[in-house]
Amino acid sequence: EVQKHSVHTLVFRSLKRTHDMFVADNAKPIPLDEESHKVKMAVKLRTEYGSVLHMPTLKENLREKGGPNTGDPYGHKQYSGNQGQELEYLITGTHPYPPGPGVALTADTKVQRMPSESAAQSLAVALPASQARMDANRTAAGVGDIYRHAGISERSQPPGMSVAMVEAGGNKNSALMAKKAPTMPKPQWHPPWKLYRVISGHLGWVRCIAVEPGNQWFVTGSADRTIKIWDLASGKLKLSLTGHISTVRGVIVSARSPYLFSCGEDKQVKCWDLEYNKVIRHYHGHLSAVYGLDLHPTIDVLVTCSRDSTARIWDVRTKASVHTLSGHTNAVATVKCQAAEPQIITGSHDTTIRLWDLVAGKTRVTLTNHKKSVRAVVLHPRHYTFASGSPDNIKQWKFPDGNFIQNLSGHNAIINTLAVNSDGVLVSGADNGTMHLWDWRTGYNFQRVHAAVQPGSLDSESGIFACVFDQSESRLLTAEADKTIKVYKEDDTATEETHPVSWKPEIIKRKRF
Question: Which parts of the chain span the membrane according to its record (predicted)?
């Protein structure tokens, strides 16, 4: 049976509970300990004002104030530059002189002029440091001095010299003072890129793009199930190839033979003979949509990656599946090949990147630094490095072991594609239609582009699925969700004066992992 109470009793109980809850003084600051506070203030005093403590204090003023300790609330003695020594300078005014000609100089008749306080202070700042103080500094060079003067002959400038000069003159703008080096090198200047051509012709999203080795034409694959070949110079359509029964997700042109390879969401991998414009080989084996493919640069090997969580290595001629690279736990979104070890690199929706041993068909290294799907990987054409793109960051890595170099932060979108040229321009294209251009070495984002969609398209159809530089690296082609191919080129009229690098070392911080 529930016992009934009056409203007065219930309100009182509620008040008591509230009081008990807040009566504890956990949040109150602890009482100040005088001794520790004095020590703390003394340390701060030495740290903050150590460089000016050697400067003279007028003894007149000290006498009036009642000795050195009266002005110090913490009872510390006045510090000179070297503890235990007298103040190095004492400004005493003029020598005693008689009040007029012919008057004898005695204790009663002498006259002595004292400088004003402001004049004394300005004189104190201009005075050089004593030899004893400079010697003390010279013998006790700090770690910072050693780093600053590394490689400089000691006789030409002793390690403590710059410190002594600053303490002596008190002038922080002294030419001898070592300037702190910026945290990052200044990025290389790159001219901005501008849109100069929009090519339309596909009836669906343009999902992939590749330029042929001779730089005469390029090829695109689309969600309209066709592969189209375009003239690079004019942007005119040369040829359409049909055969896939679903979205074409990857195309690549062989530099070793007149073949074009394509793959799609219909699980098919096709080899097209460009002399007859017909499919001459199929590569069967993937159990789901094939998302990407790449050719090995020196041997006749094709590598494909799929939604079935595997990558497969095919012999181009015999159509045999040489290896099935299993290990990823989700769809493999991108694959790249190179002649040097590791010869195969894959990025997956399981957030990992794997570097593979081509001969053994096994993983050499698994990189687990990304926190979201890795949809794009690109290899630098000259350096032994590569980059990977994910919604959390673009990361740069060093071959062969996948050592982390740096993060390129700022492209906060789903990154579908990466491309890099020999000049060190890295391009990242995202699902929301934005394209960022970066300096490879420093990770500086020097340009951001968001091109308008084709007239008649929805703004939501603004997305970049693939981008690639042509063989001359003077043109950048992007495959987009508004069914167009956009072509960019460097702005020839731009100079470093008209488009300066708005770079500040404190902004570009290398975040580790």
Answer: none
Positive or negative CA dihedral for 45, 47, 51, 54?
positive
Distance CA 17, CA 40 (A): 41
Contact 424, 385 (CB under 8 A): no
Cβ neighbours, 10 Å, residue 372: 13
* Structure tokens, 258: 């007149």
Its pTM stands at 0.65
Q: Is the distance from CB of 312 to CB of 321 less than 8 angstroms?
A: yes
The pLDDT, as a whole number, for residue 389 is 97
Measured CA to CA, the distance from residue 251 to residue 293 in angstroms comes to 7
Within 8 A by CB and 6+ apart from 273, the residues are: 258, 259, 279, 280
Q: What is the mean pLDDT of each run of 10 residues along the chain (513 residues)?
A: 82 84 70 88 86 67 49 46 46 68 73 66 56 51 50 44 42 50 77 95 96 97 97 96 97 95 97 95 97 96 97 96 96 97 96 96 96 97 96 96 95 96 97 96 94 86 95 96 96 87 52 45
Residue 449: phi, psi to the nearest 5?
-125, 135
The pairing of strands 193-200 and 484-490 is antiparallel
Residue 405: CB atoms within 10 Å: 16
Output the furthest CA–CA distance in the chain (Å, rounded): 125
* Domains located in the chain, CATH noted: 197-490 (2.130.10.10)
Residue 12, CA distances (Å) to 2, 7, 16, 20, 22 in order: 19, 9, 6, 12, 15
Compute the CA torsion angle 488, 490, 491, 494 (nearest 10 deg).
Answer: 150
CA distance 365 to 439: 27
